[in-house]
Each structure stands twice: as structure tokens, then as C-alpha cells.
Write a structure and sequence with these properties.
Order of helices and strands: EEEEHEEEE
Structural class: alpha+beta
Number of strands: 8
Shape: globular
Number of domains: 1
Largest sheet: 6 strands, antiparallel
CATH architecture: Roll
């Protein structure tokens, strides 16, 4: 199967989340050990309080970016994207929360993956490429 050109904006078949819970909207880059997504904060977002995306929304964006890596990997193998969940989150550092209509970029480095358990380091950046948040996360594919 030929690789698609980035960005990929139709990601609906790559992640298990469906509207209104989708917190990523484009796949910007992919390799075996990294993934980059973008997400525009819109006024119908469930995690908005006023004009600010809450911490929980930012963490969900991080987790869905990891899911996007798994989903695209399975897509390349012509398999259905699996459902997964967050096994653990540690070292969350939120420096700034994004505003309504802001586009954030989330970069995930895959530290290691074994038997459906993936350890990752995540950073979220604003439009000026300034770091807004970071975390380490373990995700697990459901059996």
C-alpha cells in the first residue's frame, strides 16, 4: 500500500473516538517511532470552559495523538484500528492552555512498544512552536 501525503485530514477511520469526543483533526507526520498531529480548538468542544481548553482536553489530545499513531500503523497494514486506553500518565507539565480557535501541534516520541503496551513522551506546541504542555504516558491496546 502506498503511503499517503501529509497532512491527512480525514482521520475518522484511524482513531476509535467519534464526534464529539475527537480531539485531533490532522495527521501531520508519521514514522515507526513518532507521530505529529494538529487540532483546532472549536467552539463546540466539550472540554472548553469559556474560551480556554481545559487540562483534561489537552491530556485527551495527547492520548488521541498516540491512538492516531497506532491507527495509522494498522491502516498501513490494511487492518482496523484497535481500541485502547490510557494505562498511566506521569510527569504532566502544563505551561499554558490553548484558546478557542487556536491550533495546537502535538508531537509524540515512541519510547518503546511491546505486546500492545506503548510508552511515549509527548509535547504540545502553540502556533508559535512554543511548548505548552508535556507528559509521559503508557497506553494499552484493549484485547
Amino acid at each position: 500500500m502506498a503511503l499517503q501525503q501529509f497532512p491527512i485530514t480525514d482521520i475518522s477511520n484511524l482513531i476509535p473516538q467519534k464526534t464529539p469526543f475527537v480531539m485531533v483533526d490532522s495527521l501531520l507526520d508519521f514514522s515507526i517511532d513518532k507521530v505529529v498531529s494538529s487540532f483546532k480548538i472549536k467552539d463546540d468542544n466539550l472540554f472548553l470552559k469559556g474560551d480556554i481548553l481545559l487540562e483534561s482536553g489537552l491530556i485527551e489530545n495527547m492520548a488521541q495523538t498516540v491512538a492516531l499513531h497506532t491507527g495509522y500503523d494498522f491502516f498501513l497494514k490494511n487492518e482496523t484500528a484497535p481500541t485502547g486506553y490510557i494505562g498511566s500518565i506521569k510527569r504532566v507539565n502544563i505551561l499554558e492552555l490553548p484558546n478557542l480557535n487556536e491550533t495546537i501541534t502535538t508531537k509524540v516520541d515512541i519510547l518503546h512498544e511491546f505486546n500492545g503496551v506503548t510508552m511515549v513522551a509527548i509535547k504540545v506546541f502553540n502556533i508559535n512552536n512554543e511548548e505548552m504542555a508535556s507528559s509521559e504516558m503508557k497506553t494499552v491496546i484493549a484485547n
